[in-house]
Design goal:
Length: 601
């Protein structure tokens, strides 16, 4: 064949392809517009070419079904099956056509044949599975996968595929069996955790998960995977008491020398569950008195106890003195070095904020700075503490200078942002609202969420309550009282807050005044008055931002101080119902269930 003929053939083929492409595009346009009769006419012509038939297969089939032209659809599919014998999905389309046209028995026979045939080859399993998903026949997909599993003689084959199918069928017990089995065999913690986090939500599902994990742990006591998942699950619920039980069992069984418990204790401490972090650090000290974690557990145990004392009202000064003695004894035993300067810092803060011995606190902090070696970050943290102490001493200019030094020294670090936030609060305390807000607005973009949130809240408080002359005066009075509270002058603060509320009962600050007063009253053990203020927030400011804070605090007081179990449960239930997006939701659910007595260790 000479080049001229070849060129002519090439041109002719190109023209044919171009025409076919234009016709296909026109048919697709008709299809999308719902003009199925026009689309069918062009599709029928294109279907005479095997390659083009594959391209138009789905749209042409839908078109004929829309037109109720079942005979033409069946003829088209049989031709497709003949021309593409390696594609099971075309046979599946025919089975579905039988079903659509009322020939259910014939359709089921064909589905059975397809499942039987596909189950012998993995590639066919995946092809037919995809068809069943598109056809919303998930139960058929399960049959296919189970049949293929049986034929393979591998009892775990297609586990993740089955998990997905069971999820679609809302058979979450079976889904979990497959997911946990796969996770255990592959040690794929992240897959199991992500699946649980995304799909196990309701109390009923959570109970099912826990029972399943407990059963697996009992059945396979030497397998650690399910214990690890159960510990993780409890931490996700902030249920550190039950997480500790499992971590302790794992520690003893696997001879982990306390490392797993120590890790969990840190999580508990960061979650402000100091009661359980104390228990964990105590366990490590008792079980491993000669272990490498002992000195760290000792320090963190004292710190956990400190946080418990500081968050249990009224604060007991004798307990504060006991904590200082424990820190002092630890320093006597170990000496002042870079590992113990944190204890010195804690001692200083206890002296300053709770015993009001400011000069002693400054002296201890200077010792901590001297013992910190080259740890500039720690030294700057102590400078921030010194700044706070000078606020307690009513020497704000000294505080500002210290905060600015740290801000400059740690400008690339989160500590620099903390220094900036402290400076913004100092300007707020002293009535420099515009300057404070300028700093806070920069900090809204802070690298840590906690600093960003604090800046946002204080900025909004200033913004919402300044601008008008009367608002400026109210805000100035409020910030001065806030400073008194920072200085631990609680009795004086309560008197002034009462006066402020009487004066500004209808002001936008009213709920903030009540909230600040309630928390201050708790610190001096005036429980009944605090409860009255919290109830006032709920009755009169139910839709304001502090309502869920007030309700959770009221529930905790009712549980822990008033000891009214039923009433506390009622408050926790109310919070879950009225404020479903509250940050207190997880804790409220745990506390409710504990009070109800349905938590099994």
């Amino acid at each position: 064949m000479n080049s001229k003929i070849r060129k002519t053939i090439f041109i002719w083929l190109a023209v044919c392809f171009s025409v076919a492409a234009q016709e296909m595009e026109l048919a697709n346009t008709y299809y999308k517009q719902g003009e199925y009769d026009k689309a069918a006419e062009i599709y029928k012509k294109l279907s005479n070419n095997k390659d083009q038939a594959r391209l138009i297969h789905n749209d042409y089939l839908v078109t004929m079904i829309k037109l109720k032209d079942i005979p033409s659809a069946e003829k088209f599919l049989k031709t497709q099956i003949k021309n593409n014998s390696n594609l099971l999905s075309y046979r599946a389309d025919l089975a579905q056509l039988f079903e659509i046209s009322g020939r259910t028995d014939l359709a089921n026979q064909e589905y059975d044949k397809l499942i039987e045939e596909a189950s012998k080859t993995d590639a066919y399993v995946y092809e037919l599975q995809n068809f069943f998903y598109k056809a919303n026949k998930i139960d058929f997909a399960v049959r296919l996968l189970l049949t293929a599993r049986t034929k393979s003689k591998d009892p775990f084959k297609f586990d993740t595929q089955l998990a997905r199918a069971y999820l679609y069928l809302d058979q979450k017990d079976k889904m979990l069996e497959e997911v946990l089995g796969f996770g255990q065999r592959s040690k794929n913690y992240s897959y199991v955790q992500a699946t649980i986090q995304d799909n196990i939500k309701s109390d009923k599902e959570i109970d099912m998960l826990e029972k399943m994990l407990y059963a697996k742990i009992q059945a396979e006591p030497n397998e650690t995977f399910n214990i690890e998942i159960l510990i993780w699950h409890f931490t996700q619920k902030a249920d550190y008491a039950r997480a500790f039980i499992q971590a302790r069992a794992l520690d003893r069984r696997e001879k982990l020398n306390g490392f797993k418990v120590f890790e969990l204790a840190g999580q508990s401490f960061n979650a402000k569950d100091f009661k359980n972090s104390s228990k964990m650090y105590q366990y490590i000290m008792e079980e491993y008195p000669d272990g490498e974690l002992y000195p760290y557990a000792r320090r963190w145990l004292i710190q956990s106890k400190e946080e418990l004392v500081k968050t249990t009202f009224p604060i007991d000064n004798q307990q504060i003195k006991d904590l200082i003695n424990q820190y002092q004894q630890m320093i006597v035993d170990v000496g002042i070095n870079p590992k113990t300067v944190d204890a010195l810092r804690n001692m200083a803060l206890l002296n300053a904020f709770y015993l009001q011995d400011h000069n002693k606190a400054i002296e201890i902090l200077e010792s901590a700075i001297a013992g910190a070696g080259n740890n500039q970050k720690f030294k700057d943290q102590c400078k921030l503490d010194l700044g706070d102490i000078y606020i307690l001493k009513d020497e704000p200019w000294e505080s500002t200078l210290l905060y600015m030094q740290v801000e400059k020294s740690q400008k690339e670090d989160n500590l620099g942002e903390i220094a900036k936030l402290k400076n913004a609060k100092l300007q707020y305390y002293t009535g420099q609202f515009e300057l404070s807000k300028e700093i806070l607005d920069v900090l809204k973009k802070a690298t840590t969420r906690e600093i960003s949130n604090d800046a946002m809240q204080l900025s909004l408080l200033i913004q919402d309550n300044t601008g008008l002359d009367t608002s400026e005066v109210a805000m100035a009075d409020f910030s001065k009282i806030d400073l008194l509270i920072f200085q631990n002058r609680y009795e004086e603060s309560v008197v002034k807050l009462n006066e402020l509320f009487k004066q500004y009962k209808s002001h936008s600050l009213a709920d903030e005044i009540l909230w600040l007063k309630a928390n201050t009253l708790l610190k001096i053990n005036r429980i009944d008055e605090a409860v009255a203020d919290l109830k006032s927030i709920l009755e009169n400011y139910k839709y304001d931002i502090l309502a869920d804070d007030a309700l959770f605090t009221l529930a905790k007081i009712t549980e822990e101080n008033i000891k009214d179990k039923e009433k506390a449960m009622e408050y926790y239930r109310q919070l879950l119902k009225d404020y479903p997006g509250s940050i207190y939701g997880a804790q409220s659910r745990i506390r409710f269930r504990e009070l109800r007595g349905d938590i099994v260790n």
